[in-house]
Structure formats: C-alpha cells, structure tokens
Amino acid sequence: MAGAVVLTVGNEIVSGDVENTNASWLGRRLAGLGIGVKLMAAVRDDVEEIAAFLRAERPRADYVFVTGGLGGTPDDITREGVAAGFGVECEEVPAVAAELRERFEPRGLGDYAARWACLPLGAEPLRNPLGGAPGFVLGNVFVFPGLPREMEEMFDSVAGRFRGRPIGTWRRSYRTGEGQIVDVLEEATRRHPAVTVGSYPRFLSDGPEVEVVLKSSDDVELAQASQWIEAELARTLA
After folding, report:
1. 10 Å Cβ neighbour count for 209?
2. Domain ranges, residue 188
3. 79 with 195, same domain?
4. How many CA atoms lie within 13 A of 66 on its CB side?
5. Same domain for 179 and 95
6. CA distance 45 to 10
7. Beta partners for 216?
8. Could you tell me the CATH number of the domain that includes residue 7?
9. Which of 50, 120, 197, 205 is surrounded by the fewest CB atoms within 10 Å?
10. pLDDT at 59
C-alpha cells in the first residue's frame, strides 16, 4: 500500500488559532484511494523549516501533500520553502502569469496576482478554479492552497493519479473500558497483521464507552478480523 505524508504550513495552525481540518480531510480522502497516511505534521511559515521537513520526509514517502502558504502576503512562503527543499530556485511560469493577469486585471490586481506564478523550477502548475494562487507538483510533492474549499477542489482535480485498493473501515462502540477488552484487541492484532486495530475511549455521564476501529486494504482480512473481534467481545462482555 502506498504511503503518504501530509504537511500543513501556517503559524495559525501551529499556534492552535485555526483547526487543521485540511489534514483530516486529506487523511480520509487518501484512505478511499488506497493511500495510507504515515505522518501528519504542521510547521510555521518558515522557509527552512519547510525545506528541512521535505528533505527528511520526501525520500521516505510515496507522496507528500502540502497545504497552506500560497497566497500573496508576506507569510506565504511555501513556494520558496519547497524550492529550498529541492535545492532549486523559483521562477515565473509565463503562461501561468499571463492567465493570472488576465483574470485579475479587471480588479486592478493583475501584477499582484502574477506573483503567484513564481514556482519552483520544474514544477507542474495546478490551476486554482475557486481562487487565485495555483498549486503545483514537484517530484512526489503535491502543494495545495490552505483554504479548505480550494484545497479540496484542487486535490480532486488530481485524484485520478492515485489508484490503489481503498482502505476499508469497520467500527463498533462498546459500553466498557479499554482495560476490559485490551486482551482481545492485542490478540486481534496478532491474528490479523494486515489489519490496523484501534480503540478510542470516551467517558459518558453513565459510564465509559470504547469505539473499536479496524482498517485494512484487504477486504477478506478485514471481514475475518471484524467477525472474530465482534464474537470475542460479545463473549468477553457478556
């Protein structure tokens, strides 16, 4: 199964001022395409931090997805950070600059928008139909805007490039604590190594509850694991 890394860029994300909904959306969307997310991270608007992250993680992942920092304000430096991570310069892509000038000149923003066409050398531009700043692809790195609707639309425009077996999910909630079912969960992990076993406790007003979640791109293994764990938990909690 292909593996991915998701990086969100922005001081507002790292500080907690803005929820990192883009990473969560990408994780779910990628699972449906058969790509497992191995790491989610966030860094500040800092060229060297972005570059250092890419230098470390890009060789270990099939795909890296970056969101945020593509606008025209001083803190939008993702283009420069990605370029530094690849050891290249940014340069204007004339066709992209011309298209942006044409779109934004009626608002008096032609030259301002054209700045967004300065992309890392060798990058493939990705048009942004819902906004202005284009995304781009460089190697195995896909860079999208930070605004959720723009990011989602741009990802969908390239989603056809990723094809694998979708990661299936089985989930059930049980009125118990994790300690009461940990032996069953551990045995399920041993029996079904192709299945990821997770448990997520909550504490309700009338007692504890645990949601058990199984995930796998192998439908047969997922079915067998879910059947086994459901029967074992029914027996354990009877």
Report:
1. 15
2. 168-236
3. no
4. 33
5. no
6. 5
7. 168
8. 3.40.980.10
9. 205
10. 96
Cα separation, 7 vs 78, whole angstroms = 11
The number of domains in the chain is: 2
d(CA 28, CA 134): 23
Which residues on neighbouring strands pair with residue 200, listed in sequence order? 211
Bridge partners of 92? 118
User: Any bridge partners for residue 141, and if so which?
Assistant: 64, 138
Distance CA 57, CA 39 (A): 9
| Residue entry with tokens 């007692």 | 207
Q: How many whole angstroms separate alpha carbon 217 and alpha carbon 194? A: 8
Which of 36, 92, 38 shows the shortest CA–CA distance to 60?
38
From 141, 5, 8, 17, select the one nearest 69 (Cα to Cα): 8
Model's pTM, two decimal places?
Answer: 0.85
Q: Encoding tokens for residue 85?
A: 């991570």
Q: Is there a single domain that holds both residue 39 and residue 83?
A: yes
3-state helix, strand, coil in the chain (%, to 5): 45, 25, 30
pLDDT along the chain (238 residues), means of 10: 93 96 96 94 97 97 97 91 98 95 91 93 95 95 97 96 88 95 95 95 94 94 96 92
21 shares its domain with 38: yes
Helix and strand element counts for the chain (H, E):
9, 11
